[in-house]
């Protein structure tokens, strides 16, 4: 401990989660670099619970209005995939996934400056990994697993970039992700569960507003 440093007593894991997602050195990733966000389904339950309840209370980055505008299409695509899963519409989810990939690839990293640029590089890379196979998936279950991963990063992006002028809500299903729970973003507080669709349409709760 050096002079001037502080010890975090409360919220340690929230702080560490933010550091991991931003590619900074953290307890779980001392060297920094792209974060591991539990995409390996061989992770322990602790890791999965940790990633599904990430909170970033104080971290934010100033980004230009041009950058925020460039992010709008991928949020629209994300919400469209969410709606397709709510309606158990496999083809719409796949088709929207194709558009999502195209729109994600069109966002120039030069729109982001300073630390925000590395955050975007890390987050967009993880989103791409989760989205790129959706057009080739044959079941809603497969797409829902990818959507759960995408949601982690879309929630983070909205938290730290404040990209949308309209309110978005973080909703939570306690039964998704093998009963470990999973979050998603919605433009409405009304629960319409994308992880189970018609089978458990109203299962969930509102976790917060962004």
Walk me through what this model shows.
- The chain is mainly α.
- It has a domain at 65-209.
- Helix content is 47%, strand content 7%.
- It contains seven helices and three strands; from the N terminus they run ααααααβαββ.
- It has a three-stranded antiparallel sheet with strand order 2-1-3.
- Helix 3 (65-86) runs antiparallel to helix 4 (90-105), helix 3 packs antiparallel against helix 6 and helix 5 (115-131) runs antiparallel to helix 6.
- The protein is globular and about 45 Å long.
- The termini are far apart.
Identify low-pLDDT runs.
4-22, 26-30, 33-56
Q: In percent, how much strand structure appears in the residues? A: 5-15%
Shape label: globular
Residues in helix, %: 40-55%
Determine Rg (CA atoms, Å): 17 Å
Per DSSP, the total helix count is 7
End-to-end Cα distance: 35 Å
By secondary-structure content and strand pairing, the structural class works out as mainly alpha
């Amino acid at each position: 401990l050096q002079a001037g440093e502080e010890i975090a007593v409360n919220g340690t894991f929230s702080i560490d989660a933010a550091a991991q997602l931003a590619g900074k050195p953290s307890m779980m990733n001392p060297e920094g670099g792209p974060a591991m966000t539990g995409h390996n389904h061989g992770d322990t339950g602790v890791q999965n619970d940790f990633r599904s309840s990430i909170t970033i209370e104080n971290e934010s980055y100033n980004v230009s209005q041009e950058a925020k505008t460039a992010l709008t299409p991928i949020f629209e695509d994300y919400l469209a995939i969410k709606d397709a899963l709510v309606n158990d519409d496999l083809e719409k989810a796949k088709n929207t996934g194709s558009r999502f990939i195209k729109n994600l690839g069109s966002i120039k990293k030069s729109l982001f400056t300073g630390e925000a640029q590395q955050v975007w590089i890390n987050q967009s890379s993880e989103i791409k990994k989760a989205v790129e196979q959706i057009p080739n998936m044959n079941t809603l279950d497969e797409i829902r697993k990818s959507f759960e991963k995408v949601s982690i990063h879309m929630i983070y992006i909205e938290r730290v970039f404040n990209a949308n002028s309209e309110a978005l809500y973080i909703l939570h299903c306690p039964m998704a992700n093998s009963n470990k729970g999973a979050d998603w973003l919605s433009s409405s507080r009304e629960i319409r569960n994308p992880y189970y669709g018609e089978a458990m349409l109203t299962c969930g709760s509102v976790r917060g507003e962004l």
